[in-house]
């Protein structure tokens, strides 16, 4: 199965969920046009409070829709946009990508993966128990964060459902994703 965009979302406010749209426009070095997290420096309120001059490594939030399928099996109802992501995907192991992997989306957009999204308490406010459901442990007891990856826009362009996604891996050795 080829990797594909299943939904795109954007919100001009710092709301937890984002409405689905027919398309979004990615702007190089900034993020999603019209989104509250657009900019070269951090826009997430908790990060702005600590240091507003930090670079924005969280311009675009991507989640794999396979997570929604998994959560449905656990009794949750989560749809694209509900967890605040900008791009929902299918057919790509986002969490298994290394830092610096590039996602070529649609005709021209390029997003470089910077790290993992760290789920926050807002997830439980959305649906009680959802925080625990998006966290897991591997065989060694290490925490696995399943709530998507973050990236920066290297090349802009329109992104819409149905767009193909191609992956370019960075040169080896690869670095595992860490929370950004």
List the helices and strands and how they pair.
Elements: E1 4-9, E2 20-21, E3 24-27, E4 31-32, H1 45-50, E5 60-64, H2 65-73, E6 87-90, E7 102-105, E8 109-116, H3 122-126, H4 130-133, E9 135-137, E10 143-145, E11 149-155, E12 157-159, E13 165-168
Parallel strand pairs: 5-6
Antiparallel strand pairs: 1-2, 1-6, 3-4, 3-12, 5-11, 7-8, 7-13, 8-11, 9-10
GO molecular function: catalytic activity; molybdenum ion binding; pyridoxal phosphate binding
Pfam family, one: MOSC
Protein name: MOSC domain-containing protein
Give a quick set of tags describing it.
molybdenum ion binding; 180 residues; eight-stranded mixed beta sheet; MOSC domain-containing protein; MOSC_domain; three-stranded antiparallel beta sheet; Pyrv_Knase-like_insert_dom_sf; single chain; alpha+beta; M1 Pyruvate Kinase, Domain 3; pyridoxal phosphate binding
């Amino acid at each position: 199965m080829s990797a594909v965009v299943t939904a795109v979302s954007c919100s001009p406010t710092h709301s937890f969920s984002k409405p689905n749209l027919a398309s979004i426009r990615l702007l190089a070095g900034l993020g999603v046009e019209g989104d509250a997290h657009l900019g070269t420096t951090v826009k997430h309120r908790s990060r702005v409070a600590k240091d507003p001059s930090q670079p924005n490594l969280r311009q675009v939030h991507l989640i794999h829709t396979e997570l929604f399928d998994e959560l449905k099996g656990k009794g949750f109802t989560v749809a694209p946009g509900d967890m605040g992501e900008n791009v929902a995907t299918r057919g790509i192991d986002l969490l298994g990508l290394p830092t610096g992997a590039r996602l070529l989306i649609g005709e021209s957009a390029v997003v470089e993966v910077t790290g993992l999204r760290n789920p926050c308490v807002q997830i439980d406010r959305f649906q009680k128990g959802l925080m625990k459901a998006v966290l897991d442990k591997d065989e060694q007891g290490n925490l696995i964060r399943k709530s998507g990856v973050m990236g920066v826009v290297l090349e802009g362009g329109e992104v819409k459902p149905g767009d193909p996604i191609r992956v370019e891996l960075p040169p080896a050795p690869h670095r595992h994703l860490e929370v950004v």
